[in-house]
Amino acid sequence: MNSWNFNQICPSDCHSIVTSREKRDNWNAIDPNFVIDDNDQPWLVWGSFWNGIQLARLDSTMHMAKGKEPRTIARRYDPSYKPTEPNPTSKYAGTNAIEAPFIFKHGGYYYLFVSWDYCCRGAKSNYRVTVGRSKTVDGPYLDRTGKDMVNGGGTLFLEGDKTEWEAAGHCAAYNFDGEDIFICHGYSATQNGAAMLIQRPILWTADGWPELKP
């Protein structure tokens, strides 16, 4: 997993890896997370709203592998559910409110963290983070009850407590000096929804699920 050199395989004149186009794609090409699996295979996970979180296998040039199409690995809602409330943040965005994926390997599993609902509304934000896991980077990702995230599954990992944080989301997880750290942005409950950084250690349950250290 340490054999990839981004500067060698992707010089300054690299072209776009993924682009979403209106009337062609039912997803939005934002919030990318690059991950290399245990077989030294690179992947890109990204997306928000519409048809949910997308995953694609990349080739040695860091572009989408020939003949491969992105596929959905997580949604906010079961595909049969049709939300009736409009998106409060944009009239152009869908209502399948999921975005900002991040895949983190721990033990024998890949953990997919995603953000549900709405950010960027200050104290009115209701962002939250959910998680599922898979033995392989391409899924399926199941939550703690066994529900597939592609059908709306996801175990709640972090949400606003309305005391310190109104909401929290768009996360990353890394291992620094032997300690797993969770990082995201939150909206302060004591400062009128001001955006602030959250950084907390991750603990792991006996059955291998992440929890935040108090």
Describe this structure in words.
The chain contains one helix and twelve strands, in the order αββββββββββββ. The chain is mostly beta strands. The strands form three sheets. Strands 1-2-3-4 form a four-stranded antiparallel beta sheet, with no helix packed on it. A four-stranded antiparallel beta sheet has the order 5-6-7-8, with no helix packed on it. It starts with 5 loop residues before the first helix and ends with a strand. The relative contact order is 0.13.
**What is the 3D form?**
globular
- Share of helical residues: under 10%
Number of helices: 1
- In whole angstroms, how far apart are the ends? 32 Å
Weakly predicted, low-confidence segments: 1-9
- Range of strand content: 35-45%
Number of strands: 12
The topology string of helices and strands comes to HEEEEEEEEEEEE
What spatial order of strands do you see in the largest sheet?
1-2-3-4
Using the CA coordinates, give the radius of gyration.
Answer: 17 Å
The class by helix and strand makeup works out as mainly beta
Short description:
2% of the residues lie in helices and 38% in strands.
Topology diagram in text:
Elements: H1 6-9, E1 33-36, E2 42-46, E3 53-57, E4 71-74, E5 98-106, E6 109-116, E7 128-134, E8 155-159, E9 165-176, E10 179-188, E11 195-204, E12 210-212
